[in-house]
Hints:
The chain is of the alpha+beta class. It has helices at 2-8, 29-38, 65-79, 81-85; strands spanning 17-22, 44-50, 53-58.
Amino acid sequence: MDVAWRAFYPRMQITPELIEYPLRLPPGLPRVILVNTVSLLSGTLSAELGGQVLKVHVVDSPGDFLAELEALEQRVGCMFRSASDDLPQR
C-alpha cells in the first residue's frame, strides 16, 4: 500500500538508499529463498548478492529495514533446520 500511495502522490518525500546486509545463511537454496523473498517486502528490492553481503534497495530509508531483514533471515533459516542451527548470533 505504501509504494502504491507514493506512486499516486509523487510529491511525497522519499529517501531511497542501498543497504548492505551481511548474510548469515549458508550459500544455496536458503539464500535464494531469502533474496527472492526480500523483494516481496514493501519498498524493497534485492539489488545484488555478492559473497556474504546482500545489497537491498529501499524506497524510504528511515524505516527499520535491517530488523525486518534479520527477522526474515531467521524465518528462512528455520525452514532449513541445519541452516538455522549454523546462524551466528549478532
